[in-house]
Design goal:
Radius of gyration of chain B: 21 Å
Order of helices and strands of chain A: HHHHHHHH
GO molecular function (chain B): transmembrane transporter activity
CATH class of chain A: Mainly Alpha
CATH superfamily of chain A: MetI-like
Oligomer: heterodimer
Membrane topology (chain B): Multi-pass membrane protein
Number of strands of chain A: 0
Number of domains of chain A: 1
CATH topology of chain B: MetI-like fold
Family (chain B): Belongs to the binding-protein-dependent transport system permease family. HisMQ subfamily.
Shape of chain B: flat
Protein name (chain B): Ectoine ABC transporter membrane protein /hydroxyectoine ABC transporter membrane protein
Number of helices of chain A: 8
Pfam families (chain B): BPD_transp_1 (PF00528)
Structural class of chain A: mainly alpha
Distance between the termini of chain B: 61 Å
Strand content of chain B: under 5%
CATH class of chain B: Mainly Alpha
Number of domains of chain B: 1
Shape of chain A: elongated
Largest sheet of chain A: none
Largest interface: A-B, 35 and 37 residues
CATH topology of chain A: MetI-like fold
């Protein structure tokens, strides 16, 4: 079977439509993951084991099981208990929680990497705990986290085709429906691959830039 | 009341497929990781370029797209694979690309003085890798390899979408037949988690073994 450029042109608008949903899901998922991750990281640091233990187990459990099954769980099980979500919302929640558990580890490492001396100095200069967090700890903890977080968000972008399994009309699903109706698989599937490759190569370059910009803070 | 025993059997059959796929995929990934990882450190620019293209390509696109490409596009090129072969191939090549970077990083983490000592002892390139560099690099690779193996296990769920009857596929079958959603999905989530725990326990054991005899070599 030959590569057909006319067919490529014909299916391009449909694929771009799908790409929009893919990017939308990635951005929304990243926002949910950033928030969920922070909450998990804080809960896991709690001195009260009744909070920190179950939260830790939950995070390990989510990290140890496939995103696809979690998406099915959200999409098929929750309606049985009366929570009906649109496919996209279910997908964003799934992506957000799954990658939130990864983001939580990044937050934890970032906060742990602030030297003890900084806490003690904040204390010695009579800052309140709140002031110490806002003015001393977080400004030092956040910049080194940015490249690692961005890395996970790129990984999340690459996982978005899974949303097609719960009927979200993103890039992969559009390509599949085009392929199934025209019986041509080469162009749509290859184009999906090319789209993902191009976007992730661009984001890798952006990541390098972020690393140079932020990751070397501790060398000052 | 639904008779669950038959359905549990179905899911356990799927679990066997998942385990089989994980083992075969990991074996392929391990081979690819060493081939491509050492290829990136080759003396020859062509080998380095080839390894880099492989790694960037497979890390740049998702496992899902690769699997569909292998399963739906390769037949047009005359290569028809069974779902199991396609799954092992896609998972192995994908995770192998991540593993290759781990191999490269670990080999590069071994200090210059080790290489110089090998030159001073008149060891050949192969001997140097085999007897000096890799035995020290292996313990550095193992923890990340463990994580990669868990990623591969999680990746196997995706093959259910190319009609391979793994655990996720069977759970969907059970859902379709019984209309119950919570029990099949909760069961397989727990089973996946148990498998992931087994992998991390196994890797920790391997790490202890690989470290044996290296005490005091490096801090």
């Amino acid at each position: 079977m030959e590569w057909d450029w006319a067919f490529v042109q014909e299916i391009m608008p449909t694929l771009l439509e799908g790409l929009k949903i893919t990017i939308l899901a990635t951005v929304l998922g990243a926002i949910v993951a950033a928030v969920v991750g922070l909450l998990l990281a804080i809960a896991r640091r709690s001195p009260n084991p009744v909070i920190s233990r179950p939260v830790g187990f939950f995070a390990d459990f989510i990290r140890g099981t496939p995103l696809l099954v979690q998406l099915y769980f959200i999409f098929y099980v929750l309606p049985d208990i009366g929570i009906r979500l649109s496919p996209l919302v279910a997908g964003v929640i799934g992506l957000g929680i799954h990658y939130g558990t990864y983001a939580a580890e990044v937050y934890r490492a970032g906060i742990d990497n602030v030297p003890r001396g900084q806490w003690e100095a904040a204390r010695a200069t009579n800052l309140t705990i709140r002031q110490a967090w806002i003015h001393v700890v977080l400004p030092q903890a956040i910049p080194p986290m940015i490249p690692a977080l961005a890395n996970y968000f790129i990984a999340m972008f690459k996982e978005t085709p899974l949303l097609s399994a719960i009927t979200v009309l993103e890039l992969m699903n559009q390509a599949k429906s085009v392929a199934n109706s025209s019986y041509r698989y080469i162009e749509p599937m290859t184009l999906v691959g090319v789209f993902f490759l191009v976007i992730s190569l661009i984001s890798v370059v952006a990541l390098r830039f972020l690393e140079e910009r932020y990751a070397k803070v501790d060398e000052r | 009341m639904i008779d669950w025993s038959g359905y549990i059997g179905l899911i356990l059959q799927g679990a066997l497929v998942t385990i089989e796929l994980t083992l075969m995929g990991s074996a392929l990934a391990l081979v690819m990781a060493f081939v491509a990882g050492l290829g990136r450190l080759s003396r020859f620019a062509a080998v380095r370029a080839l390894a880099t293209v492989y790694i960037e390509f497979f890390r740049g696109t998702s496992i899902f797209v690769q699997l569909f490409w292998v399963y739906f596009v390769l037949p047009f090129a005359g290569i028809t694979l069974t779902p199991l072969q396609a799954g092992v191939l896609a998972l192995g090549l994908n995770v192998g690309a991540y593993g290759a970077e781990v191999v490269r990083g670990a080999v590069q983490a071994i200090g210059r003085e080790q290489h110089e000592a090998c030159v001073a002892l008149n060891l050949g390139r192969f001997q140097r890798m085999r007897h000096v560099i890799l035995p020290q690099a292996l313990p550095l690779m193992l923890p990340t390899f463990g994580n990669n193996a868990i990623e591969l296990l999680k990746g196997t769920a995706v093959v259910s979408l190319i009609s391979l009857t793994d655990m996720t596929f069977q759970a969907q079958v059970v859902r379709a037949q019984t209309g119950s959603t919570l029990i099949p999905f909760a069961t397989i989530l727990v089973l996946y988690f148990v498998m992931a725990l087994a992998i991390s326990t196994g890797v920790r054991w391997l790490e202890r073994r690989a470290r044996r005899g290296l005490d005091g070599v490096r801090a």
